[in-house]
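DM between two lab members

TW: hey, do you still have the SDR family NAD(P)-dependent oxidoreductase entry open?
JB: yeah, one sec
JB: this one, 327 aa:
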Amino acid sequence: MILVTGATGFLGSEVAKQLVVQGHRVRCTKRSTSSIPPLLKAFDSNIEWVEADLLDIFALENALEGTTQVYNCAAWVSLKQSDKDKMIYTNVTGTANLVNLCAQYNCRLVHVSSVAAIGQAKPGELITEKHHLDQATENDGYAISKLESEMEVWRGIAEGLDAVIVNPSMIIGPNAGTEGSGALFETVRKGLKFYTEGSMGFVDVEDVAKSMIALMNSDISSERFIVSAENRAYKPLVIEIANCFGVKPPASLAKPWMMGLAWRLSKVASVFTGKAPAIDKVTAQSASIARDFDNSKLKDAINIDFKPVSQSVKEICAALDTISGSN
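TW: and the structure you got?
JB:
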């Protein structure tokens, strides 16, 4: 039996789908308030759903019964400053609980971290798995939570846990809808006016899931892998997305001071709306920074051929156009 945590999420649902298609017996965790994603409804008869929060160690222990492999895709993501401490506690404690149980029951673990937990390279260099986030200077709650969660996995490895860590870059795909990375596409579709000078790694969700499964079924252990298909500058990427939607591409550069003003105004607006800021300080600052990643370690390990980002863009635009047309 294979366990997938966070299976109602964007990545977790794709991992579960690929495992079921391959003929595996799969058990997936969900919260009592979560709904089964449309992607998995067609496979419902092949999936055993259990209610288990990673903070509920007794429910989690029951979920692990009879399993030999665990994919940990569960994580809380929030831009709200008020959620920072709670998010760090939830993600780190939940990972620690899972690590302890996997070690106890001799389950092999593939843990999903993020490139947010990887440090910055020198100008002109690619970021590799050897770079480490400086927690002393980091103020992004999500990045801190991912770094400290990784530390729990490394602690488990030191104690004998059989585990691998993956650090995906920006995960994209049609099933994101208008949430997460899908918000970038939806913003462009609605008429984005500005672009930024930064760059980022991007990877299709199908390839992240494929990489995780390949690593799980390998003899590799005690390693971390960046999962990223291509490094793309924001300007040509958003122009490509706009052309795909058939809308006017952004023509004006959003300079760093403008991004600084944007996150401050967004923070003020959130006070009145009660919603999370559309853009936070960390996002605003990173939008003008080049974060380009080296994926050679993963390619050497599992010989993966990544889906081109341009192909993913076409699939995402088609899906959002369909959603828009049905509304």
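TW: got it. The chain has a mean pLDDT of 87. The CA atoms of residues 2 and 273 lie 42 Å apart.
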